[in-house]
């Protein structure tokens, strides 16, 4: 089986700090290669893979200001689709632009839908649903108007996330500085309870950060910026609880699974995929900031080992890879 894996080009694959789509693309690619599948990863030229790298884009457009996103997006897509005949299947992880090329080639195509940014993009999905096999990343993110081939949750490499039996007493926010992700709500919880809060993540909305985050930073509420490597793992594990007080219907939530892998329970707003990720044994689903404040008393009794066990059972990269291989085989069998 020869697979062409199309990655986004906002960031390197795998990303250095932030880049959830690129991270999932990398995790799946490496897991497939480890299972003996011939994968060519179409990603930025600085990307890293055990498979074959098929890159024409010098670097991610979010990392290199010299990269014009629109110009290199077209070059990226052209590079793959000109070689489509070399592959048994194309797996698109880079949203809807690839659909424009899908009817110009005979190679079967899968698109993992990492979440709908707006109803306005539906015209680049609905007309192609008989040509492209769509995968939802959670049951909650299935669009009622679309036909899907499967729902496959993301998975992580559990052995990369060290278990912390005692995370301490600090609160944790881990995500983009953007109204969707709830940094302001996490700060409200910390200020209301006098707890220390550590915030990590890129600033995606500078105005929001300046208005809702920066004025409240002090010795107890600390913004550390984006982190990777060992510092990222330490941040995820060295907390009593992750506050995931989102303001949108999140399609999945990698940081939730990663925190639980380290033993950190989660308090999350009951929206989107959160009920699929979090059980009473691993966290608390709430409706508001007030509910999150109350839930702080509940998470003290959660067994951190149960959080890790939940991830091992349901959100491993091995399970994700096997589910995709099963889908590939079904598609190729039909073809």
Report on the architecture of this protein.
The strands form two sheets. A seven-stranded parallel β-sheet has the order 3-2-1-4-5-6-7, sandwiched between helices. The chain has a six-stranded parallel β-sheet with strand order 10-9-8-11-12-13, sandwiched between helices. The chain is globular, with a radius of gyration of 20 Å. The chain is built from ten helices and 13 strands. It has 335 residues and is α/β, with parallel strands linked by helices. The chain has two domains: 2-155 and 316-334, Glycogen Phosphorylase B (Rossmann fold, 3-Layer(aba) Sandwich); 158-314, 3-Layer(aba) Sandwich (Rossmann fold), CATH 3.40.50.
Task: Output the keywords.
6-stranded parallel sheet; 15% strand; 2 domains; globular; Rossmann fold; 335 residues; 13 strands; alpha/beta
Task: Briefly say what this structure is.
The protein is an alpha/beta fold.
Count of folded domains:
2
CATH topology (fold) name of the largest domain: Rossmann fold
What's the tally of helices?
10
**CATH homologous superfamily classification of the largest domain:** Glycogen Phosphorylase B
Which strand order do you get reading across the main beta sheet?
3-2-1-4-5-6-7
Which second-level CATH architecture of the largest domain applies? Answer: 3-Layer(aba) Sandwich
Estimate what percentage of residues fall within beta strands: 15-25%
Largest sheet: 7 strands, parallel
Secondary structure class reads alpha/beta
């Amino acid at each position: 089986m020869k697979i062409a894996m199309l990655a986004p080009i906002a960031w390197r694959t795998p990303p250095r700090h932030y880049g959830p789509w690129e991270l999932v693309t990398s995790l799946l690619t490496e897991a497939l290669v480890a299972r003996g599948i011939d994968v060519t990863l179409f990603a930025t030229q600085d990307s890293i893979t055990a498979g074959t790298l098929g890159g024409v884009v010098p670097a991610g457009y979010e990392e290199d200001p010299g990269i014009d996103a629109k110009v290199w997006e077209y070059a990226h897509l052209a590079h793959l689709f000109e070689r489509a005949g070399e592959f048994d299947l194309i797996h698109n992880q880079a949203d809807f632009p690839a659909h424009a090329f899908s009817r110009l080639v005979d190679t079967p195509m899968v698109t993992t839908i990492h979440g709908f940014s707006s109803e306005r993009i539906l015209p680049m999905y609905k007309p192609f649903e008989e040509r492209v096999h769509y995968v939802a990343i959670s049951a909650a993110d299935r669009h009622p108007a679309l036909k899907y081939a499967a729902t496959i949750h993301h998975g992580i490499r559990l052995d990369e996330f060290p278990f912390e039996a005692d995370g301490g007493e600090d609160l944790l926010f881990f995500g983009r500085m953007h109204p969707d992700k709830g940094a302001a709500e996490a700060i409200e919880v910390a200020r209301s309870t006098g707890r220390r809060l550590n915030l990590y993540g890129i600033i995606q909305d500078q105005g929001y950060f300046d208005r809702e985050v920066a004025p409240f930073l002090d010795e107890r509420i600390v913004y550390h910026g984006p982190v990777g490597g060992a510092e990222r793992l330490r941040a995820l594990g060295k907390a009593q609880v992750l506050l995931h007080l989102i303001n949108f219907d999140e399609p999945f939530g990698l940081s939730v699974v990663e925190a639980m892998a380290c033993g950190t329970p989660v308090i999350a707003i009951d929206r989107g995929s959160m009920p699929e990720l979090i059980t009473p044994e691993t966290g608390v689903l709430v409706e508001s900031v007030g509910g999150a404040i109350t839930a702080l008393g509940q998470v003290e009794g959660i067994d951190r080992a149960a959080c890790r066990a939940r991830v091992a059972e349901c959100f491993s990269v091995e399970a994700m890879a096997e589910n995709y291989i099963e889908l590939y085989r079904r598609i190729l069998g039909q073809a």
